Amino acid sequence: MTNTHLYFNTGIGRQKPNSIRNKEQSCPFCARDQLTDLIAVDGPIILLKNKFPVLEDTYQTVLIETDQCDGELSMYPEEHLIKLIRFGLTHWLEMARSGQYQSVIFFKNHGPLSGGTIAHPHMQIIGLNNLNYQEKVQASDFEGVTIAEKNGTIFSLSTAPRVGFYEFNVKLGDIQDIQAFAVYIQTAAHYILNAFPFSCSSYNLFFYELNGQIYAKIVPRFITTPLFIGYFIPQVPNNIEWMKNDIQEKYFRK
Known about the structure:
- The chain has 254 residues and is of the alpha+beta class.
- The protein has two domains: 10-134, 2-Layer Sandwich (HIT family, subunit A), CATH 3.30.428.10; 137-252, HIT-like (HIT family, subunit A).
- It is 23% helix and 26% strand.
- The protein has five helices and ten strands.
- It has a ten-stranded antiparallel beta sheet.
- It starts with 9 loop residues before the first helix and ends with a helix.
- Residues 8-131, 135-252 form the DUF4931 domain.
- This is DUF4931 domain-containing protein.
- Pfam families: DUF4931_C, DUF4931_N.
């Protein structure tokens, strides 16, 4: 049976630490010697079972990106960035290919409006037992104006955003060569946090596998538009070409 909704366990949810909103909260990811249920480790990068599995009928894991609590994906050195993205892609696809789940989602929250609770940089890989996320995704979600392209990997700004306004897409060309894929993801995150035309402190990063292709979508987070909340109607801004040119000027014409 395939479900359309996930069920959130509020009892577990109330126990979760929230170091994004509560700055006095101790960080559970910094106490590395106390971490349990480790799945894989590559230097400062750790994949482990989620201690607070709030989503029922799922298998939840956390990918700790770095041992630097104040680190941020938009600022990682390229070597660490590529290692992190490769590590995440490898374990996400291994779970997806295992046959144990209907589908597997891989995403990152950053900032107070992202839906996250722990400030320490991390991602999540979650196996969904009875829900196929791909049924809610279509190829047009990743169509857009091209910002940059290298070795078949394409960085674009959505012309048909899933939620509305600004959504950045990266389509992976060759899984054996993820350098451009990782750098384009980082560029989108850096632009959102540092050069966006509206002050923005939050974003989400989502990974998708669709029709044999791998995509990433980076979404700046603000208060969600009521047209989408109430009617699922996305809005498209009229300055997409300007933003494409702005990013090209700031990051690709140096």
